[in-house]
Amino acid sequence: MKKQIILSAATCLLCTACGFQPMYGNSQSIGGVEQNAGVQEQLAQIEINNIPNREGQFLRNALIDRFYKNGSSIESRYTLDISEITETTYDMDITVTSDATRAQLTLSMTMTLIDNESGEETIKRSFKSSSSYNIMNSEFATRVSEQNTRENALNDLARQIELQIALYLNRTNQEPQ
Where in the chain are the domains? Predict the structure, then answer.
């Protein structure tokens, strides 16, 4: 019984000393030293430029929903610039009569995060999201399926962008000042 208690206590101590910390956590005062703001507060300090076309508007709105959960900051530290979204569609599952029954939609774009203080590009990444949909006999059903697939791919791009920026901001929070 005594060994189990010692083993349990040792396990708890080891787990708390593993170095993991929440990425979206708030700033903390550790040893009287104020640590950097959490990633969520820093995401709110990013100005998102307009993105061309309807797909760009959808992506920008998805990013606004992800970045500004508690409202946007008055003064922006970074500017997010996203290139025009490129869309390609490939027919798949070709039948004997040369009709396609499935299509693959691929969206690609490039993101650049600019530090407003120095004016330099801190991150530049290309992203791609692919998804497929059924081509049905009904043109309306096919269009609805295609639009749903497009929106899912755009939401995936927003998730990828948020993740890359959050990882960058979390890394810069860890660097000594």
Answer: 37-174
